[in-house]
Structures are given as structure tokens and as C-alpha cells.
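Students often ask why inverse folding is considered easier than folding. One informal answer: many sequences map to the same fold, so there is more than one right answer. In these notes we will look at a single instance of the problem. The structure comes first.
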């Protein structure tokens, strides 16, 4: 796109002309004249030879690569041609339109103004020497032409000088705007503090949102006004360390919001100098999510440890339970059959001991390493045993279980992986019904050879805005300590490993239904190609 003479350039040209007129530097009017025509005719005639002489000096003088000779010569020729046309007709300002554009955007902008001006001065000297040689027999005409050349060249230097200054000022403004924008919209809270008193001089958008104050309210506060009282002394010490060493950081600080809520932050402080001014920059990164994830991970590890401990205890209990069962059997053999009440007590004791044994067996089976072995699994029976394992917890929560099991063929599957799916969904349903309710578990075969399992509760439901996130690892809406956010993520992972699908429907204060569908292979082909890797829960 060709550069154009806009309003700012018009003002620039008028300003330079005003300066020259005011300083009595415009000896020759800025209108076409015979003298201008004569000077331009001379310049056109001498231009090729003058350019050759100029290139021979400038290439080594400014340490320009010899390979750039022709390109440099062509660029200078084009620039001088535009200047000559301006000398002939001062209203033709194309030379300054291009000059301003080149100073701002071309390779010229990469070097100091003095480098470019030196090359321009050399061109003027070469042209002046040639003019003197050509008019050596007409001193008066020579002086007039030299004076006009000098006037036009002085004007050119003034324009170039201002163009360089304007370009640098524009660069500085753009850099400052870019810096301000990067700070203003940075994804962390950034505070600018007075170096001596810790007074807040500025705060970006994230800082304002984090603490709940507007910029006008924050400016003038002390930074320790935005931290909990117990941490204010630590904040002062951090600033003192920053003052001594130039930087410091801490992960143990919090920002206190307008409502009194505390936000854990990683704080990085540094000292900046601008001219005679010194100030602190505090970058505060909200680590609430990291802290929450760390807490959930710790809780998950604790639950895993508790599970291992429980499995160990269950294993140890089996031996004394076996002894008790043998003792009950012996008692039944020696007791007189004339004591029916005692026999009934023994029968009840045996049944309850068998129930304890079944619970322990289920617990031990669940705690085994879940490897990739596939086995024939009766889905309905597995669901019954899982519900039996959870029976006491469900009863304590006031949850009534309704089982609607349709006969299903045995499937080749990983029993432990399926049990973990069922346990997670049943536990989630119970937690969603803190005041009790109904859990309906249904199974049915589908026409395409798949099976469908549904878990429907009458709990609090899931908010619509959370439905897309519930299968994400560590996502939870439960209070700290009541959930790790891993249960549904594990369920989703295992179902997908079985090439299955899981869907959820929920309505607030009505309930939630999880529907699982997956293939139910029941022949030798199921042993191959069911998954791409181990079927781990």
C-alpha cells in the first residue's frame, strides 16, 4: 500500500516551514521558479555519477555489506528523485511521506538517526562539489544555486530529525501501552507499591477482582491492609527482604477479600526502578485450586491407606471367626435337643456369622489387585453382593434400595472393575440423599447385545452448569473432606475401557439417573480385542 499524506503529516510540514520562516531560513519562496527548475535540471543530469561516488564512500564508511551495494544505490536513487521533484514543486510532498514511513517501519528504523543523517550529508556534499565544478565560471549563479540547495537540504534534515524523534516516541508509547496491557490483563493479581511505605499505587484487573475492591479504593491502601492480621508482620518482613535483595517470594501468604474471605497465593516480589523512582511489584498467583487438589490427593491417599488397613483387619478376623463357627457347630452337636430356645439362638448365631463371613469375603475380594483378567461374571449377582456390602451404610443414611433385575447372560468382564463402578455410583447416590430417599437399581438386556444398568436416586440432583464437568478428575461440589472428585472420573474411565457409554440425567431436588451401557461378550471372542490395555479401575 502506498503511504499517504495524512493530517498529522500536514501539521508536521507546516510546523517545520513555520520554524524555518521564523528563523529567516527560507530565503527562496516555496513556489516553482526558474532557479528551482535550473537546480533540478542539474541534479537530474548529475544524479547517476553522484550516486556512484556516494556508494563508494558510504559502503565502507557505514560498514554496509558489499552485497547490498545495488539495493542501496537503487533505494537512494529513488529517494533523491522524489526529493528533486519536491525541490521543483514544493507542493509535491511525496518525499516526506515516504521518509516518515521508512523511518518508522523500514530497515532505517533499526539504526541511530545519526547514521542516516551522515549518509544524507555526504550526498549533499557530493552534489554541492559537482555544482561548484559545473558553475566555476559563473560565481553569482553558482552561489544562488548552492544557497537554494542548502535551504532545501536544511529543510530535509529538520524533517528527518523530527521523523526519527516521532518514531521513537511512537515506539515508546506502543511499548508502554503493551506493557500496561500485559500487566492489566495478566492472569495473576499484580500490585505496584511505593518503595518506602508499601502504599498501593496501582492494581490490575485480577487484583481488583481477587480482593473485591475497585482501583480507586485500592490505590492509597497499604498492602498489609489486604492480608490477614496474623500475616501482616510476615508481609512486612517479605518487603524488607525484597528491599535488601531485590526480590523475594513466599507460598505461605493470603490475600483477604472485601468480604473477609482469605485466598491462598504464591507471592513474588521485586524492586523496579524508573528514573529516580523506585517501587515494588507484587505478583500474587491464586493457588486455591492447587491447595484444593493437594488436599484431595492427600485425602485420596488416606482413603487408600484406610482401605488397605481394613482389608488387613478383615483378613485377620477370618481366623477367629472360623474358630467361633467351629465352636458353634460343636455346641450344636452336644446340646440337648430338648432345649429349642437354645437351638434357635445357635441357628441365629450361625446365620449372622455366615453373614459376617460374606461381608468379609466381599471386602477382601474388592481389595484385591484389579488386573486385566476376564472372567464370566453374573452382573445381577455382582450387584446384589455389592448392595449387601453397602447395606449397613445405606440403612444408616435412610436409603431404601429397590432392585429391578432382569435375567442377563453371564458376561466376560473384569469383576473388580465392575464392582468399583457399582460402589462409586451407589456411594454417590447415598451422599446425594442426606435425608434419606430411594435408590432404584435396574438391569436389562438391549437388542444390540449390550446390557444396560441404571442407578436412579431421589437426591438433591446436579446443577445443570456442572453436568459437563462431573467426569473430570478432581471435580467435586462437595465440601472439603467429603469427596476427592475422583469417583466419577474412575467410573467414566473404566466404562470407556470396556467400550461402553455412561450418561447422566439430573434435575435439582428431584434426583439423578446414571445409565451405563456396555457390550456383554460371553464367548471366547471376549478374551481378545475387548480393550487396548489392562482393565484397571
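Output (designed amino acids):
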Amino acid at each position: 500500500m502506498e503511504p499517504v499524506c495524512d493530517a498529522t503529516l500536514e501539521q508536521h510540514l507546516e510546523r517545520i516551514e513555520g520554524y524555518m520562516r521564523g528563523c529567516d531560513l527560507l530565503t527562496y519562496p516555496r513556489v516553482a521558479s526558474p532557479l528551482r527548475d535550473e537546480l533540478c535540471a542539474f541534479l537530474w543530469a548529475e544524479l547517476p555519477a553522484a550516486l556512484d561516488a556516494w556508494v563508494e564512500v558510504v559502503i565502507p564508511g557505514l560498514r554496509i555489506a558489499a552485497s547490498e551495494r545495488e539495493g542501496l544505490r537503487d533505494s537512494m536513487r529513488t529517494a533523491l528523485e522524489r526529493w528533486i521533484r519536491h525541490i521543483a514543486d514544493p507542493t509535491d510532498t511525496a518525499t516526506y511521506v515516504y521518509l516518515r514511513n521508512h523511518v518508522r517501519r523500514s530497515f532505517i528504523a533499526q539504526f541511530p538517526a545519526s547514521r542516516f543523517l551522515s549518509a544524507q550529508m555526504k550526498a549533499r556534499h557530493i552534489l554541492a562539489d559537482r555544482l561548484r565544478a559545473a558553475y566555476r565560471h559563473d560565481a553569482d549563479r553558482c552561489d544562488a544555486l548552492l544557497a537554494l540547495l542548502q535551504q532545501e537540504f536544511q529543510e530535509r534534515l529538520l524533517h528527518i530529525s523530527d521523523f526519527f524523534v516521532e518514531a521513537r516516541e511512537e515506539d515508546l508509547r506502543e511499548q508502554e501501552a503493551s506493557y500496561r496491557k500485559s500487566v492489566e490483563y495478566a492472569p495473576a493479581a499484580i500490585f505496584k507499591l511505593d518503595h518506602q511505605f508499601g502504599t498501593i499505587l496501582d492494581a490490575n484487573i485480577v487484583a481488583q477482582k481477587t480482593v473485591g475492591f475497585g482501583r480507586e479504593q485500592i490505590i492509597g491502601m497499604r498492602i498489609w491492609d489486604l492480608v490477614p492480621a496474623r500475616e501482616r508482620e510476615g508481609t512486612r518482613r517479605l518487603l524488607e527482604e525484597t528491599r535488601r535483595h531485590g526480590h523475594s517470594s513466599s507460598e505461605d501468604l493470603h490475600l483477604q477479600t472485601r468480604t473477609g474471605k482469605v485466598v491462598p497465593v504464591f507471592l513474588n516480589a521485586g524492586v523496579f526502578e524508573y528514573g529516580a523512582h523506585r517501587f515494588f511489584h507484587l505478583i500474587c498467583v491464586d493457588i486455591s485450586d492447587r491447595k484444593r487438589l493437594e488436599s484431595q490427593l492427600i485425602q485420596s491417599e488416606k482413603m487408600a491407606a484406610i482401605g488397605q488397613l481394613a482389608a488387613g483387619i478383615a483378613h485377620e478376623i477370618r481366623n477367629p471367626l472360623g474358630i467361633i463357627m467351629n465352636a458353634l457347630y460343636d455346641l450344636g452337636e452336644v446340646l440337648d435337643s430338648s432345649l429349642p430356645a437354645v437351638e434357635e439362638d445357635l441357628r441365629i448365631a450361625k446365620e449372622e456369622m455366615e453373614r459376617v463371613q460374606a461381608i468379609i469375603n466381599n471386602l477382601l475380594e474388592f481389595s484385591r489387585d484389579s488386573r486385566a483378567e476376564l472372567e464370566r461374571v453374573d452382573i445381577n449377582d455382582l450387584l446384589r453382593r455389592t448392595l449387601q456390602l453397602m447395606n449397613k451404610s445405606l440403612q444408616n443414611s435412610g436409603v431404601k434400595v429397590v432392585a429391578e433385575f432382569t435375567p442377563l447372560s453371564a458376561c466376560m468382564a473384569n469383576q473388580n472393575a465392575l464392582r468399583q463402578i457399582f460402589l462409586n455410583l451407589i456411594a454417590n447416590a447415598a451422599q446425594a440423599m442426606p435425608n434419606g430417599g430411594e435408590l432404584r437399581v435396574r438391569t436389562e438386556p438391549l437388542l444390540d447385545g449390550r446390557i444396560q444398568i441404571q442407578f436412579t436416586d431421589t437426591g438433591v440432583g446436579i446443577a445443570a452448569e456442572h453436568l459437563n464437568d462431573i467426569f473430570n478428575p478432581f471435580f467435586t461440589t462437595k465440601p472439603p473432606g467429603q469427596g476427592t472428585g475422583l469417583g466419577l472420573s474412575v467410573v467414566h474411565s473404566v466404562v470407556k475401557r470396556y467400550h461402553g457409554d455412561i450418561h447422566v440425567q439430573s434435575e435439582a431436588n428431584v434426583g439423578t439417573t446414571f445409565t451405563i451401557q456396555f457390550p456383554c461378550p460371553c464367548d471366547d471372542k471376549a478374551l481378545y480385542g475387548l480393550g487396548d490395555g489392562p482393565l484397571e479401575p
